[in-house]
Amino acid sequence: MIKLRLKRFGKKREVSYRIVAMHSTSRRDGRPLEELGFYNPRTDETRLDVPAIVKRLKEGAQPTETVRSILTKAQVFEQLKA
């Protein structure tokens, strides 16, 4: 199963995340299938590749709870229904 989840990177206490599509059995920081966006919790900055995310969701990828809340704030699910 493919999941949309966060991949951690950055220095200690200065963490930021990439939103990636990867197999559910692979490691957190393992090789992703595709990088779909960026999330910085310290500045609350997000950059999303919305067409690629919509494509992955239509193929059946399941977002984690954190990624689901980020996508809801960016109204990505509204574009999925259209």
TrEMBL record:
What are the transmembrane regions? none
Please tell me whether the keyword Ribosomal protein is annotated for this protein. Answer: yes
Name the PROSITE patterns on file: RIBOSOMAL_S16
Q: Which UniProt keywords apply?
A: Ribonucleoprotein, Ribosomal protein
Q: Give an example GO cellular component term for this record.
A: ribosome
InterPro entries cross-referenced by the UniProt entry:
Ribosomal_bS16, Ribosomal_bS16_CS, Ribosomal_bS16_dom_sf
Tell me which family the UniProt entry assigns to this protein. Answer: Belongs to the bacterial ribosomal protein bS16 family.
NCBIfam families listed in its UniProt record: S16
Q: Which PANTHER family does this chain map to? A: 30S RIBOSOMAL PROTEIN S16, SMALL RIBOSOMAL SUBUNIT PROTEIN BS16M
- Give the protein name, as stated in the record: Small ribosomal subunit protein bS16
**Species this protein is from:** Synechocystis salina LEGE 00031
